[in-house]
Amino acid sequence: MSEPYPAASGLVRVYPAREPNGTGLVWAHGGGFAFGDLDMPESDWVASQLAARGTTVVSVDYRLAPVPQDWGQDAGVPPRGGHHFPAASDDVLAAWSWLVDNAARLRVDRDRIAIGGTSAGGNLAAGATLRLIERRATLPALVLLAYPTLLAVQPAPDAALRAALDGQPDADRFGPDVVRGMYENYLGRPLDSAPLAAIPGLARLVDLVQFPPTLMVNGDVDELRVSGEAFAASLSAAGRPVEVVTEPGTEHGHLNRPHEPAASVTIRRFAARLAALPTALPLPLAPPAVAEPADPATRQNTPVA
Questions:
Q1: pTM of the model
Q2: Domain spanning 5-298 has what CATH number?
């Protein structure tokens, strides 16, 4: 089957690689933890594009947080109930386990499976990875983060970013109150009781010593990139391989706008890193047995492999 199809009792949509290169990816869309679905471009378009480049993608239909009354009015979405942490994180972990368990039949190398996501989905991917580390479970070979939100209380942007945000008011939509409110809604409780997996940017160096290699692509005029850069700095301080790219000229969410050239640039970045994941080395051949001396008189404790 080459077309996307539902699996894992509807938890995921699988995008089989057209010409599999052995890589797999568990992918989580964004939407402030409360919005988004599998049909939005940064879910469906991204998965389709990566599948066309050789990676089998498992896109996660994770449970969403509630939509409060005032949010619904602002977004044109009716208010509704929802699920607080750890529901979405649990769903991402379940999708991860499902792909690991089904890798062989999906023509995916278990040693070449990545995890990633956009915005709030990037938070879920990073948080799920921290939980996998804690559980001593199979870890991703790579973490792909697109303009992630990783801190509920962000450092202030530097002067250059602040000036860019002031110059593009439509891009200036992730100020401190908005971000804090988003996390409080996701958690359903105060921030001071939040577990690390919900706010990965708070990870200490000791929490990150096993974190997989990471590629992070941030928006240019996007206040959320402050949290991404802070997390990347922590990864680097912990000695973990991390590459951070700021896609020039972009606002938050460029993968949700496939018509923008930067969206295709980011897809190519991700596809290249996935394709470059090392394959498992073959087991070395056993050394040849050492022949015993022909003369019994010289026969001692000669080792035989």
A1: 0.90
A2: 3.40.50.1820
